[in-house]
Amino acid sequence: MPDAWIVVLILAAVFVLMLLWFIGMYNTLVRRRVDADNAWSQIDVQLKRRYDLIPNLVETVKGYATHERETLDAVISARQHAVNITSDAAHAAMKAQAEGALSGALSRLLAVAEAYPNLKADANFRQLQEELTSTENKIGFARQHFNDTVGRYEETRQTFPTNIVAAMFNFKERQYFRLEEAAQREAPKVSFS
């Protein structure tokens, strides 16, 4: 009879250890998912700041470049399209595409500004350019952080034996924030010369 108790205790200990190991894998996946969600929210914060700056920049340019309506409309349209895309990590690819289009439109807007010396000298315009440059840098860092956290999440989710736990609890694949065109990867050029 004592041998049977030892076997039961050993089996119970093995079961408890496996349960703790399983819980540890699950909790690691949850932490990685939360980190990726947090990183996405940091991108969202910077994009919101960018969206808030763009109307002011457009209005400032409007005062000087009234016949550049097509460029101004393109920026406004690209901004609105980017704002309208659901802002969650599941839509990272669509958001990246819209942000790329917005970056291109902003680049064209800033190129238009080069043709107007009085606009380039305007203190409000220069301040908006500086804020936009700072925001673009912050967006770049937030994208990098997001992609790093998605990488850690995906590595954890796909690695054996955690992949079994991930499949059991439906931990979904996360998309990286990728810009498709090389030109979209660059922040709009801001020049004071």
Characterize the structure shown:
- The chain has one domain: de novo design (two linked rop proteins) (Up-down Bundle).
- The model has no long low-confidence stretch (mean pLDDT 86).
- 78% of the residues lie in helices and 0% in strands.
- With 193 residues, it is mostly helical.
- The chain has helices at 2-64, 69-84, 92-114, 117-121, 123-158, 162-168.
- It is rod-shaped, with a radius of gyration of 25 Å.
Topology record:
Blueprint: H1 2-64, H2 69-84, H3 92-114, H4 117-121, H5 123-158, H6 162-168
Helix pairs in contact: 1-2, 1-5, 2-3
SS class: mainly alpha
- CATH topology: the name is de novo design (two linked rop proteins)
Helix content: over 70%
Helix and strand element order = HHHHHH
The coarse overall form would be: rod-shaped
CATH level-4 homologous superfamily: LemA-like domain
- Reported CATH architecture: Up-down Bundle
- Measured between the Cα atoms of the first and last residue, the distance is 91 Å
| Tally of individual domains | 1
Counted by DSSP, the helix tally is 6
Largest sheet: none
CATH class: Mainly Alpha
Report the mean per-residue pLDDT as an integer: 86
**C-alpha Rg, in Å?**
25 Å
In total, how many beta strands?
0
Q: Which parts are unreliable, with pLDDT below 50 for 5 consecutive residues or more?
A: none
Instruction: Provide the β-strand percentage band.
Output: under 5%
Task: Considering the chains and any ligands shown, give keywords for the structure.
single chain; 193 residues; mainly alpha; de novo design (two linked rop proteins); 78% helix; 0% strand; rod-shaped
